[in-house]
Amino acid sequence: QGQIRSRQNRFEEAVNYLTKSIELGARFGGNYIQLATAQIRLNRYDDAVKTYENALQIGAFPKAVAYYNMACVYSLGKQTDKAFEMLNKAIDEGFTNRETFEPLSI
Known about the structure:
Low-confidence stretches: none
Helix content: over 70%
Distance between the termini: 19 Å
Largest sheet: none
Number of strands: 0
Shape: globular
Number of helices: 7
Structural class: mainly alpha
Order of helices and strands: HHHHHHH
């Protein structure tokens, strides 16, 4: 339901569905990406970073992807120092080419 709501640009509803889905155990990388994307569309950058941090803690997708996505979120929120910090972490974790991560990124 959450992914459907996101495609319909009903981001508040998407956040609610995806949050509940994750709470109920559907801890898949795609759910975290969809949730963070909906949060970004609602300009909830801090929430999106927390979503990626949670995904990172449980290993929902590669660390390089999580750090790259957090760098993007920080950039959108005009937090350039944090953005570069996360980008450096992404590089340390094997990020070498943005196109490699595009399918998993925001």
